[in-house]
Specification:
Blueprint (H helix, E strand, L loop, with lengths): L1 E7 L2 E6 L9 E10 L4 H5 L17 E8 L13 E4 L2 E2 L5 H4 L12 E2 L11 E5 L3 E3 L6 H7 L2 H12 L6 E5 L3 H12 L3 E6 L2 H9 L4 E4 L5 H8 L5 E6 L4 H10 E9 L10 H4 L5 E4 L5 H14 L7 E5 L4 H8 L6 E5 L1
Parallel strand pairs: 10-11, 10-13, 11-12, 13-14, 14-15, 16-17
Antiparallel strand pairs: 1-2, 3-4, 3-8, 3-17, 4-5, 5-9, 6-7
Enzyme class: oxidoreductase
EC number: 1.1.1.103
Cofactor: Zn(2+)
Length: 341
């Protein structure tokens, strides 16, 4: 089969590798949808000399159908023909972190991140341990399942940590795939949403997704603008998804006393002056994707509330279009891309 790799320097290559065969405890999935995630761009943009595994097939938002199972595989999630998502991490399976659904936090063994350490989903087939599978509801498209497998699931995981409710006014910094997912999920939970970005196309999308206010961060002093929209108090919560230092600083400065700030954007370096924050009694949290239970809970919520995750996708590609797809995604304008088969 052929799959997409990142050899570095904003290049994409389609390489040929053997079709996967499942070993004990493993399954092979026929990939129906493989989402493009903002974190892909960090690897895509890296210099070639810094890519440790240029031969690894990328893609960590897998969704598809089980087509083969190895010895010892049981359970309804792994039956042949099952529609599934993948929780794209794997650890020792025995430690407290793994057993609580957080294999990405495993300390007992080096974790495997599919699409980074082992072959991912930008290919016709993908081999994974059966215990990484999450069922995909029949009411969800494969593309929606791919979104939940990382981007949308990341917003969900952050909200689980932050404890968002319908009483909150939430400022979402960045309206890329994670930020737009946050806007959709927060509105479905009854929150008032202020969407921020530097791209007017993404802000227009956020407005159609239900954002109560949109702000182009290039045009205004952001903390002042948010205070103006909140009768001088500031947002009760802020979620930073852009991975930009300026967005992180603005998020911290835009929340009211006793407010909560969630930080999920990879790549930002944020300096904190404690004396400036102490008297506001802020709660500042980080969040790393979601647990495997959280991934399933997110999917259930999307179905129960009738959220149209397919609206996230503005670009649908074949694997043969991967170079064009990542060049377009690198512009960071518009919505989300997905490879479909």
């Amino acid at each position: 089969m052929r799959g997409v790799t990142f050899p570095g320097d904003r290049r994409v290559e389609l390489v040929t590798v053997p079709d996967p065969t499942p070993g004990p405890g493993e399954v092979v999935i026929e990939i129906k949808a493989s989402g493009m995630c903002g974190s892909d761009l960090h690897m895509y943009r890296r210099p070639a000399a810094s890519i440790a595994r240029p031969d690894v097939i990328r893609g960590h938002e897998p969704c598809g159908v089980v087509v083969a199972a190895g010895p010892g595989v049981t359970g309804p999630n792994a039956r042949i023909g099952a529609r599934v998502m993948v929780h794209h991490y794997h650890g020792c399976t025995c430690c407290n972190e793994c057993r609580s659904g957080w294999p990405q936090m495993c300390k007992s063994t080096p974790i495997t991140v599919y699409g980074e350490d082992e072959h991912g989903a930008h290919a016709p087939y993908m081999k994974v341990p059966a215990d990484t599978l999450v069922p995909l509801n029949d009411e969800l498209s494969f593309a929606a399942g791919a979104a939940i497998s990382c981007g949308t699931g990341t917003a969900w995981g952050a909200f689980e940590r932050m404890g968002i409710s319908g009483r909150d006014t939430l400022a979402v910094f960045g309206q890329g795939p994670v930020g737009l997912s946050a806007t959709l999920l927060a509105k479905a939970q009854g929150a008032r949403v202020i969407a921020l970005d530097i791209d007017d196309i993404r802000l227009a999308t956020a407005k159609t997704f239900g954002a109560d206010f949109v702000i182009n961060s290039r045009d205004v002093d952001v903390p002042s603008a948010i205070r103006e929209l909140t009768q001088g108090s500031g947002a009760t919560m802020a979620l930073e998804t852009a991975g930009a230092a300026a967005a992180g600083r603005d998020a911290i400065q835009s929340v009211a006393s006793w407010g909560t700030v969630g930080l999920v954007g990879i790549g930002a370096e944020i300096s904190l002056q404690l004396s400036a924050l102490l008297r506001k009694q802020l709660r500042i949290l980080t969040s790393w994707t979601m647990s495997i239970q959280g991934q399933r809970a997110c999917a259930n919520f999307v179905v129960e509330r009738g959220i149209n995750l397919d609206a996230l996708f503005t670009d649908r590609w074949t694997l043969e279009q991967a170079d064009e797809a990542y060049k377009a995604f690198d512009l960071q304008s518009g919505g989300k891309g997905v490879f479909l088969s």
